[in-house]
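Structure tokens please, single chain.
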Amino acid sequence: MRVALGTAALALIADQASKWWVIERMGLDQRLFIPVADPYLNFAMAWNRGVNFGLFGSDSDVMRWALIALALVICVVVWLWVQREGAGRGLQIGAGLMIGGALGNVIDRIRWGAVADFINMSCCGFTNPWSFNIADAAIFAGAFALILFSGRNTPAPKA
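Here you go.
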């Protein structure tokens, strides 16, 4: 499980460092929009109080702490599942990405009361109204890897 732990640490550090840079150093929380490679990549500040795309968003402290608790429970369940599965490298990387990303967003909810989203990408005539962050990308990639690599260490059923 060292690979999972290392991957989680790298995802968490990358997420928090990127948020520190764009919020504290670049002042995106005050400027709200910084063109990077317009229209393909921009920094557009968004405070997400819900889950993906702001679903179940609420300014309620109850919802904030419920989402924190849910993320922590998911982290524990994923860790235990991957550990029990006899995790190969791919599964550990997926778990680490998912856990590191989830913890990055938990830190945001504790620190700011919402998740700091700032990466906005558009392409091919489609203007994307939503922003995301490194943690969100890690969670998505981790979930994909968990699906892709799960069940690989289980023995094939006997005929």
